[in-house]
């Protein structure tokens, strides 16, 4: 077992403190690493740049720790239990990293949990402490990590191994939470941030989308529970898929309210985002390119099939809204026409094949510069939407 403990140490300075304890380290010198990217967003992001300090000890005795490269560290030879304590700067509002203020704590494991190299299959346990700083509201914790124990000021979870540990984002805040079951599988959504959502309507619409996807994939549900973690802000937008959950950011005007009974373009956009990320639970988290079965978290993982997984998902995210009778045929075709227009305005489809654009996603689609928009527009409508999510 590898033990992790994460504490929102200073909400005003945006600092998490993480403690990692490994019982039987490599006696020749244990190496630790942090991912350089997060699955679902195909860009090397170098999360290790946010580690601001790191110390190692064994039996209360300080141990030397040395950096081998940008995201690997080695602790001096030691046959006994090693404890690392390090601080992580967390002030990225996106769904991809970590964020900490007095309103909210959010983190992906890939930004905060170091991996003990060569302990890939070792089970992990993580204690999540509530902050001792004063925060706004009464915070709760939401995640699909396996719950083990709830204490007054902390919650303990477990994960099968390191890869499992980093595939469950964690949200702590004074959020709204609602729950529903689909075919006996518990689903929930949390909404953090100011909002005035018509929860009954959102829940009913989400249920129809989820049921559509479950039926679409033949009734096989690849998770035992599912969680939509939503952050409502003034204008942001984005989502990231995980095995049993998704992190979403939307503008609060995209959430439904009782004074707008008809489906608005803004609400349609939010439902399509939910639809997209939920579809990924099957289509890339379960069925995936061969090269994604053993991910190398330190470098790019190339595949020529990203267009199949992101492109098909983008195609079905809005189509599901039509099939679930949330959009009329006219409303759906209007959206589809907009997509086709965008594709036809570009010339990317004359420059690269879908396989080539998939392979280059790490340095083109996800790393746009003045040349990239042209290359975004490939042969199939919707594939251009990769970057939206
Ligand atoms: Zn996607």
From TrEMBL:
Domain (Peptidase M61 N-terminal): residue spans on this chain: 4-173
Domain Peptidase M61 catalytic: 270-373
InterPro entries on file: Peptidase_M4/M1_CTD_sf, Peptidase_M61_catalytic, Peptidase_M61_N
Protein name: M61 family metallopeptidase
Organism: Candidatus Thiodubiliella endoseptemdiera
């Amino acid at each position: 077992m590898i033990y992790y403990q994460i504490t929102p140490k200073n909400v005003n300075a945006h600092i998490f403190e993480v403690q990692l304890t490994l019982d039987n380290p490599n006696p020749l010198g244990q190496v630790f690493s942090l991912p350089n990217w997060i699955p679902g967003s195909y860009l090397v992001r170098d999360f290790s740049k946010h580690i601001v300090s790191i110390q190692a000890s064994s039996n209360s005795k300080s141990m030397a720790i040395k950096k081998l490269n940008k995201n690997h560290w080695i602790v001096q030879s030691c046959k006994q239990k090693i404890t690392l304590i390090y601080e992580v700067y967390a002030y990225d509002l996106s769904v991809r990293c970590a964020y900490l203020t007095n309103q909210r704590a959010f983190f992906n494991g890939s930004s905060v949990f170091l991996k003990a190299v060569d302990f890939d299959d070792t089970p992990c346990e993580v204690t999540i402490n509530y902050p001792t700083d004063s925060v706004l509201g009464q915070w709760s914790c939401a995640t699909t990590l396996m719950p083990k124990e709830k204490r007054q000021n902390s919650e303990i979870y477990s994960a099968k191994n390191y890869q499992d540990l980093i595939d469950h984002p964690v949200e702590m805040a004074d959020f709204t939470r609602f729950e529903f079951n689909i075919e006996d599988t518990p689903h929930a959504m949390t909404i953090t941030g100011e909002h005035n959502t018509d929860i009954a309507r959102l829940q009913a619409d989400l249920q129809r989308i989820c049921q559509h996807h479950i039926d679409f994939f033949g009734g096989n549900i690849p998770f035992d529970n599912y969680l939509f973690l939503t952050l409502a802000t003034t204008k942001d937008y984005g989502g990231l898929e995980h095995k049993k959950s998704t992190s979403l950011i939307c503008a609060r005007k995209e959430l439904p309210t009782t004074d707008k009974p008809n489906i608005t373009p803004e609400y349609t956009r939010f439902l399509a985002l939910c639809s997209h990320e939920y579809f990924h639970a099957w289509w890339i988290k379960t069925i995936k390119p061969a090269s994604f079965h053993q991910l190398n978290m330190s470098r790019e993982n190339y595949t020529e099939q990203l267009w199949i997984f992101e492109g098909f998902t983008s195609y079905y995210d809005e189509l599901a809204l039509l099939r679930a009778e949330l959009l009329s045929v006219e409303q759906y075709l209007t959206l589809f026409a907009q997509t086709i227009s965008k594709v036809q305005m570009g010339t990317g489809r004359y420059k690269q094949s879908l396989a080539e654009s998939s392979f280059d996603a790490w340095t083109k689609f996800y790393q746009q510069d003045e040349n990239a928009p042209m290359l975004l527009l490939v042969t199939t409508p919707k594939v251009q939407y990769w970057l939206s999510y």
